[in-house]
Each structure stands twice: as structure tokens, then as C-alpha cells.
Design brief:
- There is one protein chain.
- The chain is mostly helical.
- The chain is built from six helices and no strands.
């Protein structure tokens, strides 16, 4: 990632473009906030569940940090779009029923072999989210939804930068 196109050495992404996305974007949502909040919570749950699977301290720290990023997204979403989160019960109940954590883990367990695997999974998921939010921001006619999606796209970009720097340290 460092050096941009000039440093490109021919590596190619593999796997389906929408690999795993069904675990984070599913169901009917009343609004853009609820969909975004559910997506961030699903990813947070995945990172925390994966943290329990890995053996090395480095991997546990990385996954814990990624989960904290998603918690930060949720808090920012609540503040930006609901005002004071403590005054609004909707934010706390968006995910009633939650995600099937065991199904998610089984689906993603092969990505927990090394720090490099975890970073690549994180980059894939954050890139999918960036792509989704970017497309949604261009497609919606609702000003508030567009603002939400543009904000979330910027957040995903900052996560990608972090993951890229961490990946560069490994390779």
C-alpha cells in the first residue's frame, strides 16, 4: 500500500467481492442510521469473537483495537444523528436479536491464522464498507442520509489508513 501505484508489485485481491458482507448488511432497517449502526456493531462483534480465537498477544491487541474503532463509530453515529445518546433508547435497541456469532466465526475463522491474515480481512471489510457507504451517499436523495454515508465513508478511509500502516510494518 505504501508508495501507491508506483510501488505496486502485481499482487491481486482474491475471493468474491462481497465475501462476508451478508453478515453486516441484512434485514429491514427503518433508516440509514439503523443500517449503519447495525453494520458497525456486527463488525465489532466479529472482531471481539475473533480475539478469543487467536493465540498471540499482538493479534489480540490488534483485534481489540479494531473492535474499539467500531465502538467509536457507533458512539459518533449516536451523537451526530440522535443528539445525546443517553436520551434516546432507539440506539440501544437497534440490534435486538443480534447476529449469530458462531456462524460469523465459522465463516471467517480461516482469516485468524496470522497478523497478516487479520489485517487483510480488516482491510477487505473496511473496503467493502467504504464502497457501500460511498455508493449509498451518491444514490440517496435524503440530505441527512447522504451526510451520514459521507461521514461513514471518511471513517472507513481512516481505518484503512491505519490497517495499511500496520500491514506495511509486517511486510
Amino acid at each position: 500500500m505504501s508508495g501507491g501505484i508506483i510501488a505496486y508489485n502485481g499482487g491481486k485481491a482474491f475471493g468474491a467481492e462481497d465475501f462476508g458482507l451478508q453478515y453486516f448488511v441484512q434485514g429491514d432497517f427503518a433508516n440509514a442510521f439503523q443500517m449503519s449502526y447495525a453494520m458497525e456493531e456486527g463488525l465489532r462483534q466479529l472482531y471481539l469473537a475473533m480475539e478469543k480465537l487467536v493465540d498471540t498477544k499482538e493479534a489480540k491487541v490488534l483485534l481489540g483495537r479494531l473492535a474499539v474503532f467500531e465502538e467509536g463509530h457507533k458512539a459518533k453515529l449516536k451523537t451526530m444523528f440522535l443528539g445525546n445518546p443517553a436520551d434516546n433508547e432507539t440506539a440501544a435497541t437497534v440490534l435486538e436479536g443480534g447476529f449469530d456469532q458462531q456462524q460469523m466465526l465459522k465463516y471467517f475463522e480461516q482469516q485468524t491464522g496470522s497478523l497478516q491474515d487479520i489485517l487483510q480481512l480488516g482491510m477487505m471489510l473496511e473496503t467493502q464498507a467504504l464502497d457501500l457507504y460511498s455508493r449509498l451517499s451518491r444514490q440517496t436523495d435524503n440530505k441527512d442520509s447522504r451526510e451520514l454515508f459521507e461521514y461513514m465513508a471518511k471513517e472507513e478511509t481512516s481505518h484503512l489508513r491505519f490497517l495499511s500502516r500496520e500491514f506495511d510494518k509486517l511486510v
